[in-house]
Specification:
The structure holds two protein chains of two kinds. Chain A has two helices and 31 strands. Chain A is mostly beta strands. Chain B is an alpha+beta fold. In chain B, strands 1-4-2-3 form a four-stranded mixed sheet. The radius of gyration of chain B is 21 Å and the shape is elongated. The interface between A and B is medium-sized, with 36 and 27 residues.
């Protein structure tokens, strides 16, 4: 069966810069052996696509790339199974130059075990959008072979700090293609993606105290959302994109409030004489996870938006911070501080078990990829903040080392519709 | 526990207000008796002026020294003002009480052992409690704005207790207003 689907990529693409080195450790329980055959057509584009798709798949730890060793099949009939022993799937394709600097990239994924075509698609895009095409191909290969949608086309946000200059950065999920949304001499904190991926809420100290802003990624227009006396912080979007949860000290203590996305119609959600912060919506939008020291030390709690009822979820030794729901709503990831180090940990709400995923260090601010398979967090190498990921089963870890600056406060963005 | 520490401190501050007279840093005139015999009125006036200037300078120096000491420090994950900082608080409270036009920003900070948002909240509580102590010491609440920088502006950036101790602090900042 052949299905030719035309996808038009209209991403806002800047020149790509290789600013990060990626180091991967560990492997998935099962690694699918895959061969990527360099596509026919424009050699430079073909090589770029091959490298990008290969890197994307390798980073997950779920695939073993098998060198096609000179074989270059163009059609399924070119593939002689005897020559591909041990390979479960082969990606083949072609690049066709079109008018107005566009290219049509046709690709097919073949299952050699069941002798079936898993996918056949065409993507057309400008020739300078090779990265976006490559991530899209990798997403589809990942989805066909694992059953979960790929997240290579999604984006991440983080804050970089370099010689007294703070930048709010949006980048591809592999850390490449960085774009600065805001540059400031005062701190920036807590970027939060709108569910449609078009806006980011964040905290900026540009007016010499913490205030919440929302900025459009497309128009770059920004709006001041909360500037009450004291601190305004920790923005989080509701899943329908209609509400923002925030932490305000307008009534003295750090407490959680809900507002419209323009900051209006403020409604207080928590009532304690403690620090209640880091709200994170449940996927159904009915409750918030948050960090609170109301029990004596910082732990994770949940509050219902309907009746403001609060339930304590973690009873860890040490402290628990920065909860974020798994997309399925059944577990959450958090930063666990114990014996002087931070670990990334997952708490299952049904079994009430906590699993530590990382070796420990200065590991903070975890967030799930939108498919729930990977967790992005901030860690340190030689005193410098860097991005890192760990697979949700803890098996595969990677560190993304920037060439300069100190990276903090990462947040994985949503699927782009 | 935190509240108990705070209330003990506040009692101490109140006691200090009622019993301790304001410190007057009076400098004794430096008299050189032999020279004094032959002074003219003009000389005496010059000496008096010099003495007044010296006193003013001494007072200014004392005030400058007081202004320089504008940080109070906190134990780990504690937001109550500590007894060790009573003198700093009293000095600034008295200054604010006697200079009703002066305004300060109290900036709370935290060490990095927490999330950035939790630390923002902790810094805000430290600033709020420092403000409360200043008000109990005689300052007016309207003279004091409180803000927090959480762990965002560390004075020292190494991962050790000596560093963290410097970062767990509230600064009473006049020039920032």
């Amino acid at each position: 069966m052949r299905r030719w689907i035309l996808l038009c990529l209209m991403f806002f693409v800047m020149p790509a810069h290789a600013v990060l080195n990626i180091e991967i450790t560990g492997a998935g329980e099962h690694q699918t052996p895959v061969s990527l055959v360099r596509f026919s057509g424009d050699a430079a584009i073909a090589q770029g696509l091959l490298d990008l798709v290969g890197n994307d798949l390798t980073r997950t730890g779920l695939f073993k790339l098998i060198d096609p060793a000179g074989k270059s099949p163009r059609e399924p009939r070119d593939i002689r199974p005897a020559e591909w022993a041990g390979v479960e799937a082969v990606l083949i394709g072609s690049i066709e130059s079109q008018a107005e600097g566009k290219v049509a990239v046709k690709f097919r994924l073949l299952d050699l075990v069941r002798n079936a075509e898993l996918m056949s698609q065409v993507v057309t895009a400008r020739a300078d959008q090779v990265r976006a095409i490559g991530h899209r191909i990798a997403d589809l290969v990942y989805e066909r072979l694992t059953g979960s949608p790929g997240v290579f086309s999604t984006r991440i946000a983080y804050v970089s700090r370099d010689t007294g200059v703070y930048r709010l950065v949006v980048a591809d999920s592999d850390g490449d293609n960085e774009q600065a949304l805001l540059t400031s001499k005062e701190p920036i904190m807590s970027p939060a993606w709108s569910p449609d991926g078009q806006q980011i809420a964040y905290v900026s100290f540009e007016k010499r105290r913490a205030m919440v802003y929302v900025q459009s990624l497309t128009s770059r227009k920004r709006t001041l959302i909360a500037d009450f006396p004291g601190s305004n912080s920790a923005p989080a979007w509701s899943p329908d994109g209609k509400l923002l949860a925030m932490v305000l000290t307008r009534d003295e203590e750090s407490q959680i409030y809900l507002a419209n996305t323009n900051g209006g119609q403020l409604r207080r959600i928590t009532y304690s004489d403690a620090i209640d912060t880091e709200p994170s919506f449940s996927p159904d939008g009915k409750s918030l996870l948050f960090t609170s020291d109301r029990g004596g030390s910082p732990q994770i709690y949940r509050v219902s938006i309907e009746n403001n009822e609060v339930q304590r979820l973690t009873f860890e030794s040490g402290n628990a911070f920065s909860p974020r729901f798994h997309p399925d709503g059944n577990s959450f990831v958090f930063a666990h501080f114990r014996d002087g180090v931070f670990h990334i940990a997952v708490h299952d709400m049904e079994s009430r078990q906590t699993q530590i995923l990382t070796a420990g260090g200065w590991e903070k601010k975890p967030s799930y990829a939108p498919n729930g398979k990977m967790i992005l967090f901030a860690t340190e190498v030689q005193g410098r903040g860097i991005l890192a990921t760990v697979s949700s089963d803890g098996r595969v870890k990677q560190k993304m080392v920037a060439q300069s600056g100190d990276i903090r406060e990462p947040m994985w963005g949503p699927f782009l519709k | 526990m935190k509240k108990l520490i705070l209330s003990v401190l506040l009692l101490n501050l109140l006691a200090a207000c009622s019993s301790n007279p304001p410190k007057e840093e009076v400098t004794e005139p430096a008299t050189t008796s032999a020279a004094a015999v032959s002074t003219t009125d003009a000389d005496a006036q010059a000496a008096a002026d010099a003495q007044a200037a010296a006193e003013a300078q001494a007072a200014a120096d004392a005030e400058a020294a007081m202004m320089q000491k504008n940080s109070v420090y906190f134990p780990f994950d504690v937001d109550a003002v500590q007894d060790a900082d009573r003198e700093t608080i009293m000095n600034h409270a008295e200054y604010l009480a006697s200079h009703p036009d002066a305004k300060v920003r109290v900036e709370g900070n935290a060490d990095e052992r927490g999330s950035s948002e939790y630390n923002l909240g902790l810094g805000q509580r430290r600033a709020n409690n420092t403000k409360r102590a200043l008000v109990l010491g005689g300052a007016s609440a309207s003279q004091i704005e409180t803000v927090s920088y959480g762990e965002e502006k560390p004075r020292c950036s190494e991962h050790n207790e000596a560093c963290w101790a410097q970062n767990r602090r509230a600064d009473i900042n006049y020039s920032a207003q």
